[in-house]
Design brief:
alpha/beta, OB fold (Dihydrolipoamide Acetyltransferase, E2P), 3 domains, five-stranded mixed β-barrel, 15 helices, 48% helix, elongated
């Protein structure tokens, strides 16, 4: 009869086999089977240095948190060429795949957005979106023809090299630059501009599942289906910088700053207007360093405010004030040296109320100053002339009179004045009043 071995006498290979089987079962059913998360950031504005910082920070953060890819939900009218190139460089150098998704419905990837979309490892579009019109526009709308041609050729070559790198339609990319052609989402897939059309982010993940893309670290196969999506919230600092870098907000900050300084100079010692004005001006100049500012327009704005301030000090019958308003209007139109297609422009709904409010405040200050000049004096020698009082003692011709509860030494110019009679101040000589009889009582 064969003896039964106890558990502690079982052979080691048997125990190892049990452990391996348990590990395999756990790997199938346990948490390790879950797909690595996807990170997502929304870029819904013109391409500026702020969006450059947002994209670079999102890539770095997604990589640090172990995301397998970064989804960039894009909606942009275009933007600055230098900022666009920086964003493309960030995508090309990204250690994790970057998926550009033009969404939601009605969104666009225009101008600079074309380059960013085509540079993505995976490019997708939502229904009812469009892409294209990437022709470069010279800053200010002018420039030498030869220089404009050079800029166009440079942009076309950049578009082609991106398209070739990502295996997309290089001919269309060049035409988007040279001829400003555009395409709908369906046409974009057919022309191999983007990879696919997705109804939503979950639909996008399902369609790119198993796709292999090339990154600087090598080939990466996306396990995207049912992967959790972690939205990257824009930090308060970046939201604040993006807010003040908006062309209209920067313009309002500058105007508020100049008004604050104006009121501080008009009323020395008020302090608060000067403090607020200084802060607004510093924030405005910070924003201007990331915007295509036309310095002639900025100088016209400053000159307009100087003319309005001069109107307070110099009586020009409104000539300086009108000149200041005109200079501010022209300066507002010239402030941003950028074509409309970049999305960096001032809104008339901001310019007109701002200039109108500034002019109204200055005119109000001027009118109050003029009114103060013609207001009768309430203190000093001239304020005493014409005041009514009562003879406290008989004036023969000297005595005392009571005016507004104060006793004054007085000399009558109408002979003797009995005590209790009303008098009127005719003149003042030092601290002695010269009075006459009056029929009115104080």
């Amino acid at each position: 009869m064969t003896p039964v071995r106890s558990a502690k006498h079982r052979p080691l290979p048997f125990i190892v086999a049990i452990l391996l089987a348990s590990a395999a079962l756990f790997s199938i059913t346990g948490p390790a089977s879950a797909a690595a998360p996807m990170s997502l950031i929304e870029l819904d504005s013109a391409i500026t240095p702020v969006t450059v910082r947002l994209l670079a920070g999102a890539i770095e953060r997604a990589h640090a948190e172990g995301a397998q890819a970064l989804i960039v939900q894009l909606n942009t009218p275009g933007g600055l060429e230098r900022s666009m190139r920086s964003m493309v460089q960030s995508i090309l150098a990204s250690p994790i795949p970057v998926i550009v998704y033009v969404a939601p419905g009605g969104a666009r990837a225009a101008s600079a957005g074309v380059f960013i979309t085509m540079a993505a490892h995976v490019a997708a579009m939502a229904p009812a979106t469009n892409i294209g019109a990437a022709h470069p526009v010279a800053v200010g709308g002018g420039g030498d023809k030869e220089m404009i041609k050079k800029v166009e050729n440079d942009a076309a070559a950049f578009a082609r090299t991106i398209a070739v790198e990502r295996g997309r339609n290089a001919e269309w990319a060049e035409q988007a630059v040279r001829s400003s052609v555009s395409a709908t989402e369906r046409e974009a897939v057919k022309l191999r501009i983007v990879d696919l059309v997705a109804e939503s982010v979950p639909d996008l993940l399902a369609k790119i599942d198993g796709r292999t893309v090339k990154t600087p670290k090598g080939q990466v196969t996306l396990a995207a289906k049912d992967a959790p999506v972690k939205i990257i919230e824009v930090r308060f600092r970046d939201r604040f910088l993006a807010l003040i870098s908006d062309p209209n907000i920067a313009y309002l900050l500058m105007m508020a700053g100049m008004l604050g300084i104006f009121f501080e100079l008009s009323n020395p010692g008020a302090i608060l207007p000067g403090v607020i004005g200084g802060i607004c001006l510093i924030l405005a100049f910070y924003a201007f360093q990331s915007l295509p500012v036309n310095w002639a327009g900025l100088l016209l704005l400053l000159f307009g405010v100087v003319l309005l301030i001069a109107e307070v000090k110099v009586v020009s019958h409104g000539v300086l004030a009108v000149g200041g308003v005109v200079a501010m209007l022209i300066g507002s139109l010239m402030l941003y040296d950028s074509p409309e297609t970049t999305g960096v422009r001032l809104s008339w709904y901001v310019v007109i109320p701002t200039v109108g409010t500034t002019a109204a405040l200055v005119f109000f200050a001027v009118s109050m100053g003029i009114r103060a000049l013609y207001r009768p004096s309430v203190t000093g020698e001239s304020a005493m002339v014409g005041r009514l009082g009562m003879a406290r003692s008989a004036l023969a011709p000297e005595g005392q009179v009571l005016i507004d509860g104060e006793l004054w030494r007085a000399v009558s110019q109408d002979g003797t004045v009995a005590a209790g009679e009303p008098v009127r101040v005719a003149a003042i000589d030092g601290l002695t009043l010269k009075v006459t009889r009056s029929t009115q009582r104080p």
